[in-house]
């Protein structure tokens, strides 16, 4: 295995189990590893610290282990079993859940979501892409008979510069039965073409809470994607639910999902429209609004503009929501921390001149755990607000 030597003093974060090696920390290497190759990290005193996947970029090594051990199928089985034990401890395991959340499960670069009998696996690093077949074998052994399909979906998550020519496709099975369930509600998961692994599992708990606030309300679900919040609102007894997304495909799936759970129910209507346009022209009679936009800032440099975007969006909602209305507002930008987001929402409320109380502070669910040594893993935050 090729070895990478750190500059003096640059081992400190690794000794505290932070799972990344940045390019600036590297003193020299034996010879340039290939993208995705396993490498060993050594201190300036030639002491072993960790083993990980090498990749060209500002994060050069993603650490898999801090112990001298082989990275093989057995290694992945151990990590996957540990991840599954955590999900059982949370009380998950039957419906849809995230089994592997990258660094949060000590597997940087890997995401695995389980939808009933199908696992959707996504590599965010070249190393995980190279290991995909042994990971799939390990997954089969850990999940046993309950697993019938593994769909590999990494076309859009790998660095294009690595020229891997990766294709999405099944590594096991091939079923196109795409209905999964969550808290007893059912939905189609478009794992072939959809965003992320086909569904936003990370909003499960927040959708459940939304359901509890929906009774008798007129609900607007902005950035609805496949309608997750909409069908929870309907089950919660909403008077009316309007779903908005700029993608026609998302709107088609939203309609299909509402129909699947509430056939023939005419409380729901979906609109393929830009959110900002819709908010400008919308009626003012909604008394429950959900704002769950895509990440406005993917990197730190985009932070200022992202914060402006959150202010603009939330201000429009504050201006239009009925007195006594409830606003569920989210940010999934990892680069925006919860205080910055809260400040943006505060600015929006002040600009709209509304009296606002914070009822709940929301976050990612327990199957998207944060490795305590990797605080960067915290990304989803939300506020539930009462607007007087
Ligand atoms: N709330 C959803 C997830 C939202 S993902 C859920 O629970 O599943 C963000 C969505 O915003 C995507 O579906 C994307 O198509 C949509 N989107 C992005 N830009 C938009 C815009 N300007 N107007 C409306 N929708 C937009």
| Helical proportion, percent range | 25-40%
The CA-CA distance between the termini, in Å, is 63 Å
Task: Specify the biggest β-sheet.
Answer: 7 strands, mixed
Approximately how much beta-strand content do the residues carry?
A: 25-35%
Overall 3D geometry? globular
Write the layout of secondary structure elements.
Blueprint: E1 2-6, H1 12-15, E2 20-22, E3 26-29, E4 38-42, E5 48-54, E6 59-65, H2 73-90, E7 97-101, E8 110-115, E9 118-123, H3 126-130, H4 132-143, E10 149-152, E11 169-172, E12 179-182, E13 185-188, H5 204-213, E14 218-222, H6 228-235, E15 240-245, H7 248-261, E16 268-272, H8 275-281, E17 288-291, H9 303-320, E18 325-331, H10 338-352, E19 356-363, E20 381-387
Helix pairs in contact: 2-4, 5-6, 9-10
Residues 200, 203, 223-226, 228-229, 245-247, 250, 274-275, 292-294 line the site of S-adenosyl-L-homocysteine.
Q: What do these coordinates show?
A:
There is one protein chain. The chain is an alpha/beta fold and 388 residues long. 29% of the residues lie in helices and 27% in strands. It contains 10 helices and 20 strands. It has helices spanning 12-15, 73-90, 126-130, 132-143, 204-213, 228-235, 248-261, 275-281, 303-320, 338-352, and strands at residues 2-6, 20-22, 26-29, 38-42, 48-54, 59-65, 97-101, 110-115, 118-123, 149-152, 169-172, 179-182, 185-188, 218-222, 240-245, 268-272, 288-291, 325-331, 356-363, 381-387. It has a 7-stranded mixed β-sheet with strand order 16-15-14-17-18-20-19, with helices on both faces. A 6-stranded mixed β-sheet has the order 2-6-5-4-1-3. The site of S-adenosyl-L-homocysteine has 17 residues, from helix 6.
């Amino acid at each position: 295995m090729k070895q990478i030597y750190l500059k003096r003093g640059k081992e400190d974060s690794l000794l505290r189990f932070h799972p990344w090696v940045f390019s600036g920390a590297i003193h020299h290497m034996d010879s340039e590893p290939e993208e995705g190759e396993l490498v060993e990290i050594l201190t300036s005193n030639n002491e072993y610290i960790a083993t990980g996947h090498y990749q060209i970029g500002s994060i050069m090594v993603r650490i898999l282990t801090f112990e001298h051990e082989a990275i093989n199928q057995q290694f992945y089985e151990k990590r996957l079993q540990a991840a599954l034990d955590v999900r059982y401890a949370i009380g998950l395991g039957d419906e849809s859940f995230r089994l592997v959340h990258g660094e949060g499960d000590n597997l940087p670069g890997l995401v695995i979501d389980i939808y009933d009998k199908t696992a959707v696996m996504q590599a965010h690093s070249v190393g995980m892409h190279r290991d995909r077949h042994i990971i799939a074998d390990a997954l089969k052994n850990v999940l046993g008979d309950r697993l019938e399909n593994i769909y590999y979906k990494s076309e859009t998550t790998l660095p294009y510069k690595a020229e891997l020519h990766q294709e999405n496709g099944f590594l096991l099975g091939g079923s196109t039965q795409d209905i999964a369930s969550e808290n007893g509600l059912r939905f189609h998961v478009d794992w072939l073409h959809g965003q992320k692994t086909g569904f936003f599992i990370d909003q499960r708990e927040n959708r459940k809470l939304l359901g509890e606030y929906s009774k008798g309300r007129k609900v607007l679900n902005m950035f609805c994607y496949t309608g997750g919040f909409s069908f929870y609102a309907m089950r919660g007894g909403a008077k009316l639910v309007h779903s908005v997304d700029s993608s026609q495909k998302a709107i088609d799936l939203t309609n299909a999902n509402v129909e699947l759970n509430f056939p023939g129910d005419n409380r729901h209507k979906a609109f393929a429209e830009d959110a900002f346009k819709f908010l400008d022209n919308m009626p003012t009679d909604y008394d429950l609004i959900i704002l769950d936009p895509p990440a406005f800032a993917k990197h730190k440099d985009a932070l200022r503009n992202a914060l402006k975007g959150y202010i603009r969006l939330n201000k429009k909602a504050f201006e239009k929501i009925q007195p006594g209305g409830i606003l569920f507002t989210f940010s999934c930008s990892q680069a925006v921390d919860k205080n910055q987001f809260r400040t943006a929402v505060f600015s929006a409320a002040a600009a709209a001149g509304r009296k606002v109380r914070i009822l709940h502070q929301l976050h990612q669910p327990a199957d998207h755990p944060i490795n305590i040594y990797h605080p960067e893993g915290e990304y989803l935050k939300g506020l539930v607000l009462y607007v007087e």
